[in-house]
Amino acid sequence: MTTTPARPLREDGPPTVRPAPSSGRPVPRGRAARRAIPLAPAVVLLLLFMLGPVLWSIWGSFTNASLSGRAASEPRFVGLDNYVALLSDPDFPNAVWLTVVFLIVSAVIGQNFLGLGLALLTATAPKIVRSIVATTVVTAWVLPEIVAAFACYAFFSSDGTLNTLTASVGLEPVEWLFAYPLASVILANIWRGTAFSMMIYEAALNDVAPEITEAAVIDGAGGWKRLIFVTIPMIRNSISTNLMLITLQTLSVFTLIFVMTSGGPNQRSSTLPLFAYAEAFGLGKIGYGTAIATVMLLIGAVFSFLYIRVLKPGDTA
Asked: Where are the alpha helices (DSSP H) in 64-144?
């Protein structure tokens, strides 16, 4: 009688875990249709209230629609005229540049890194400290945008809180909203939106298995090495999701900037939402304004594509 020798284990590394083979059986069409029925109301609402306005905006950008006159009731198809006019508008590159700076500094750098830092610090902090930090940070996030905007205006105004604090140490008052309008709205957006990133990263850090962190400690990895080589790769999907959400959220910030600076002075804080509003409702050029809104859609799509390509959510290899 012969026996089959046992397959030796690999000595140069841990055994490879092979995924369980899938059954490969197709789901019957009737069952798939029944599963899709509960999703139908949500799909209809999305088509009506999200896809519909987007398609209308794209179509409007190819017309000469306006708020008054004959073009208000009978808009005419003008092809790419709005986009050609946009490229020759000297205010357009300024608005694009301010939007990208506002987006990267306040959302990608400010909210994202500050939210991650707060989540890491509170993860090991006593419960009372976590509660105080969470309450303080989240309060700014739950405020209605108009209330947060007026609070920031009061903080940065010439007789506001910031100048009161600087005067207490002998500094001269500064017209922050006139001298540094973009920096003021960037700080305001960081203050208001950091809580969202912090909550996303708190949930992600709770899902990191403590055994993996302990194994890294046993291998001699310090705090920074554990963060870069263990924690960050394991929460990569959450980083990608957070970046996409705060990017799209920041790209549409309007009330905060409008209340604080109205895009001024001299259009030094006029991002694309304010530029589109001024053209569409200030000058009545709806078609031109929707062309600017379509450019905003493209910017959001470009950033989302970069996040997906760079961070590759769902790829854990």
From this structure: 70-73, 81-87, 91-102, 112-123, 127-142
